[in-house]
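INTERNAL AUDIT FORM
Audit reference: QA-55
Scope: verify that the stored structure record matches its stored sequence.
Auditor: D.O.
Record contents follow.
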Amino acid sequence: MKEIPLSAFSGKAVILGVGNDMRGDDGAGPALVKLLSGKCPGITLIDGGQTPENKAFEIIRLKPSSLVIVDAADMGLKPGQTALIDGENISNVSFSSHALPLTVLTSYLEREIPGLKVYIAGIQPKTTAFGGRLSREARAAIKNLAGRILNAQRA
């Protein structure tokens, strides 16, 4: 399981949390953004919800050097496991709550922002049932990922 490189948090970085917080672990991305709020000077945090493409112009305006997208993703792992999803393997991953594939958004942003590095961090959901809460496993993964991000910033 690859981790997000420290370089993702140097320079001008954006973390985009994606998902529906009314569907259990699908809300992992927005929950991470909320947890990090006010704790990451130098990193812009954006809650992309179910329609991250609606944040494209905001991201383009910011002109970041790196974009880290955090989303619940069915990768066939144990609930709560995280993985860095590379572009070559993104088609093997199921993202549940948004209709537009993340590859469309990332390709567009890479064309519009020269030199942009995009990283997709997937969190394996336990449940994405409507009305469900974040599972214990997803909460632990979010806390762990937040800790890694904060430690990377201090490095």
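Auditor finding: record pair retrieved intact. The two ends are 21 Å apart (CA to CA).
Action required: none
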